[in-house]
Amino acid sequence: MDGRTLQERDRQALSALQKLRFFPLSVTAGAGCMLVEEGGRQLLDLSAAWGAASLGYAHPALNLAVAEAMASQAGASILSSTNAPAVELAEKLLDLVPGSDDRRVWLGHSGSDANEMVARAVPEATRRPRIMAFSGAYHGGTLGSMSISGHFAQEGVEKHRGLILVPYPDPYRPFGDDPGGGALLAHIEHLLQAEGTGEEVGCFFMEPIQSDGGMIVPPPGFLSRLSDLCRRYGILTVCDEVKVGLGRPGRLNCFEHEDFTPDILVLGKGLGGGLPISAVAGPSRIMDHARAYSMQTLHGNPICASAALAVLSTIEADGLAGNADTVGRVLIEEIMRATSSTECVGDVRGRGLAIGVELVKDGTSEPNPDLARKTVFRAWQLGAVLYSVGMHSNVLELTPPLILTESQAKFAAETIAQAIKDAHMGLVGDDDISDFTGW
Ligand code: PMP
To answer: Member of which family (predicted)?
Structure first.
């Protein structure tokens, strides 16, 4: 070409509105959990592109399914005709999510469009105009999904007119000094009782692990109790498992860690293994409600549906939820061990391969976002790819491919511990990261 690096050409050609960069990674290839960057260096990917590359890179089952669909059915969708992969995928997803009432599946392209559809369909179908959600939640990057999101990244956007935000149950930074979540539940019930609010709320959006808000795992039993509360008020529960579903949490669905089943389940990211597809499963009275129509030309296209079918069958055939559970435990234990002498690690938490490492100012619980940004930069230098998240931008997020091995987990823990240590010692300067805005 003209001698410019991919990074330089990227800066001059691609809009900054689509970038969330922490270091200058230029990917040229990938295989399994490894990425190859420009220049040939290999890195262990502990992000899997924020959870999307659920099977890792160049998985033969995924490659084959996509190539076959591309060769035979490119261009079709479910808008004005039907196709076998889309129907089969919908049937599979209905089987996956328990529930006795009549249900349907809606297929989309991203977590954003899926959540947006739910935020529109529920108020219209239930005639309840209000929506409850958690502060810190990232439900998407389109106007509608942003309007129900409580994450700071969506602060500039006008909120849904009926949105009620409540704090997320965070055992590390508990609401009302109650790590069990009882005070928060009482607060939510109080809001529902106020001036008939309970009858106006159509649904409650919940992430069973709050991912972009900080990989926060709620206290045991909290979501079941919240679900009971919603049921008492006739409020539908919506589980946004876009990042933490489909095997990643060590079970097929993250809600299976609790004794409850959501009314509506939203899936995305890892569902397509890298291709753009999302899905919503929910009651037909919502999903078939005629006035809430929501269509885009390529919804349910056979290429992405075939990719999703390959992902689901590989997760099942290769026991990847079980692998996520086992390797995730090793990863958490090893990180705890390798960082035990470090005073700047406040909390290590997670389920399966959805893990967060909270970085704090030494010996306190005060968030340390500067250390987090420098740690992920240093980790990239040392050969591991991970990013930071959280309402204080101080949590290292690990969402590696579900095929991660124990030896890769051990390397990951050592690398993360070393990166924290190096960044803490000042090996990464402000100048190194000044071009990368992060969140
Ligand atoms: N929901 C959750 C829980 C997410 O983490 C994200 C993306 N970070 C989204 C929705 C939006 O998904 P997408 O970027 O695929 O539109």
So the answer is: Belongs to the class-III pyridoxal-phosphate-dependent aminotransferase family.
